[in-house]
């Protein structure tokens, strides 16, 4: 495991490390099985070099700064609608009633996912992001992939027959030009939906929870909304969605931090640890929404695999948290002493976040 900031950046940008686990020692049989049965093994998440560039280029235009700015009014509209639904009650679970449905609503419009018959993406995400280190978890992941494939395949067929103004239709057009295979198209749809949903939901919930546990930071951000862009970066650094890190695999012997790692081994890059490296950050364990002139946080990764949806995630978090603080300035934890549980999996997200506030007419 790599925990230092500089070492993490080096590992994330080194082309000698592979994103594919296919050659890992002792897992050859399992990886061969995964390549045959796991559609996500055809996604850009585990692709390298030209193959990764080809897949990424097909969707990168959907997540540019300009495209995200154009989406901002829709993000605001969805945010307002969700908060309108809880305003009169004076209490809510900000995970199930806000942090989870908001990115799903935005992604549904962007990708082209109809609300009717939509599966429970939050439930299925858990099956896909749990470490597959037990037979039960392997089976749960397989069921989740099967259910998502069954959902997307007829939707893809419908878009091929009747294209819309959405990302799924654009991918179908690329498939018609043989720029992407059928399996890669399905993998892309699943990856974009679940990655953009679960990580953003965790960013919003983690961020609000951190602010509520630090009332002085909550007050500073509430009273000075100009701090919001920097505050989102600080919340990503302080408690981002990816805690255990991302995996890379050694093709040849690889030296990092004075240690030589043999071929066929896994390196875990601890993004959360790197984001609190005292060699790079002053007072790394202190939440400070007014932090200035700090190194770029690594919550979205670094290098060619830098999170494609980072601009959209930042915009959603900025709008969601900013609107929440503006509309409910006395927002507080329903039980400040409660030990709130976390969602299962390799991501760090809240399972529930009960809050109270002054009811609004």
Layout of strands and helices, then pairs:
Blueprint: H1 5-13, E1 17-18, H2 28-37, H3 49-59, H4 65-87, E2 91-93, H5 95-99, H6 101-112, H7 121-129, H8 135-161, H9 167-176, H10 182-213, H11 215-223, H12 228-239, E3 246-250, E4 254-256, E5 259-261, E6 266-269, H13 271-274, H14 310-327, E7 332-333, E8 354-356
Antiparallel strand pairs: 1-3, 2-8, 3-6, 4-5, 7-8
Low-pLDDT stretches: none
Largest sheet properties: 3 strands, antiparallel
How do the helices and strands follow one another from N- to C-terminus? HEHHHEHHHHHHHHEEEEHHEE
CA-based shape: globular
Strand order of the largest sheet: 1-3-6
Which class do the helix and strand fractions yield? mainly alpha
Average pLDDT reading: 92
Q: End-to-end span in angstroms?
A: 52 Å
Fraction in helix: 40-55%
Task: Please give the number of β-strands.
Answer: 8
Beta-strand percentage? 5-15%
- Tally the helices: 14
The radius of gyration is 21 Å
How does this structure look, described?
With 361 residues, this protein is mostly helical. The protein is 53% helix and 7% strand. The chain contains 14 helices and eight strands. The protein has helices at residues 5-13, 28-37, 49-59, 65-87, 95-99, 101-112, 121-129, 135-161, 167-176, 182-213, 215-223, 228-239, 271-274, 310-327; strands at residues 17-18, 91-93, 246-250, 254-256, 259-261, 266-269, 332-333, 354-356. The strands form three sheets. The chain has a three-stranded antiparallel beta sheet. Strand 4 and strand 5 form a beta hairpin. Helix 4 runs parallel beside helix 14, helix 7 crosses helix 8 and helix 8 (135-161) packs across helix 10 (182-213). The radius of gyration is 21 Å and the shape is globular. The mean pLDDT is 92.
């Amino acid at each position: 495991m790599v925990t230092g900031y500089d070492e993490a950046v080096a590992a994330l940008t080194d082309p000698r490390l592979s994103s594919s686990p296919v050659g890992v020692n002792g897992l050859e049989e399992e990886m061969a099985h995964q390549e045959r049965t796991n559609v996500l093994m055809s996604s850009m998440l585990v692709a390298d070099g030209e193959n990764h560039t080809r897949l990424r280029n097909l969707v990168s235009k959907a997540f540019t700064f300009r495209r995200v700015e154009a989406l901002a009014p829709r993000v605001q509209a969805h945010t307002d609608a969700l908060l309108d639904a809880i305003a009169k009650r004076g209490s809510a679970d900000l995970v199930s009633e806000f942090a989870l449905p908001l990115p799903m609503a935005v992604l549904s419009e962007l990708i082209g996912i109809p609300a009717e018959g939509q599966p429970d993406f939050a439930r299925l995400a858990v099956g896909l992001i749990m470490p597959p280190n037990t037979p039960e978890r392997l089976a749960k992941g397989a069921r989740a992939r099967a259910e998502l494939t069954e959902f997307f395949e007829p939707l893809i067929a419908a878009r091929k027959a009747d294209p819309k103004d959405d990302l799924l239709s654009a991918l179908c057009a690329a498939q018609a030009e043989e720029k992407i295979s059928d399996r890669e198209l399905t993998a892309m749809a699943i990856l974009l939906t679940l990655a953009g949903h679960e990580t953003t939901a965790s960013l919003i919930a983690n961020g609000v929870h951190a602010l509520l546990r630090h009332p002085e930071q909550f007050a500073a951000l509430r009273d000075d909304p100009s701090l919001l862009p920097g505050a989102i970066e600080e919340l990503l650094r302080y408690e981002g969605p990816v805690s255990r890190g991302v995996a890379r695999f050694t093709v040849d012997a690889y030296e990092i931090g004075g240690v030589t790692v043999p071929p066929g081994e896994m390196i875990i890059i601890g993004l959360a640890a790197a984001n609190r490296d005292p060699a790079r950050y002053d007072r790394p364990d202190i939440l400070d929404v007014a932090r200035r002139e700090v190194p770029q946080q690594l919550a979205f990764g670094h290098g060619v695999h830098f999170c494609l949806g980072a601009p959209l995630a930042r915009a959603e978090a900025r709008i969601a948290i900013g609107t929440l603080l503006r509309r409910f300035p006395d927002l507080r934890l329903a039980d400040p002493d409660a030990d709130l549980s976390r969602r299962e999996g390799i991501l760090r997200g809240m399972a529930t976040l009960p809050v109270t506030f002054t009811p609004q007419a």
